[in-house]
Amino acid sequence: MPDAATPGEPHLGPVDFEYPLPHLAESLKHGRKTRIVAIGSSSTAGADGILPFPPRLEMTLREKF
């Protein structure tokens, strides 16, 4: 992915996916309740005072959709 952060640097902004997510797009388009699961380590738990990834993702999706 061209938007990927360099090793050791947090990537705080959204990243474009290489492949489309048609089921997610359809769910959001129709206002359906949608569950997204974030799996990971320090980026999902929050480390060094950085807001964890799941709440950042939620805020971004709520702003956009």
In short:
The protein is mainly alpha-helical. The protein is built from three helices and no strands.
Number of beta strands: 0
Radius of gyration: 13 Å
**Could you name the ranges where pLDDT drops below 50 across 5 or more consecutive residues?**
none
Termini distance?
24 Å
Helix content: 25-40%
**Contiguous helical run count:** 3
| Chain-averaged pLDDT | 77
> What does the main sheet amount to?
none
Sheet/helix structural class: mainly alpha
**What is the beta-strand fraction?**
under 5%
Secondary-structure element series: HHH
Oligomeric assembly: single chain
Q: So what's the overall shape?
A: elongated
Topology readout:
Layout: H1 22-29, H2 42-45, H3 53-64
Describe the protein.
This protein is an all-alpha fold. The chain has a domain at 22-64. 37% of the residues lie in helices and 0% in strands. The protein has helices at 22-29, 42-45, 53-64. The longest helix is centred in the C-terminal third of the chain and has 12 residues, at 53-64. The chain starts with 21 loop residues before the first helix and ends with a helix.
